[in-house]
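check this:
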Amino acid sequence: MTQALNMELPPTFKVDVQTTDNRGFTPEEIAERCANRIVAVSDNADPMVRAQAHAFKKEIQKTVVFYMREAIKSDRTTVYNALIDAAQPELAELIRRL
């Protein structure tokens, strides 16, 4: 027996595609995308509410950037230690310097 999946999308649903050229996304770029998903405010909102939402969004971005940088450092430490364990000290040192 097959079942059909009916899904109605809200009228505000949109798809956003971003790309880079010969590089990955920076923590700042990803944090901006993240904050835009977390915080949204209508253009018709009260100006004070809108201003508060935009200020909150900036704080979210700063927080996400900070923790993304921490995650990157932690991952590099993990890769460095894995390379040391694999008897690749020269490669490990190159990773450490990134």
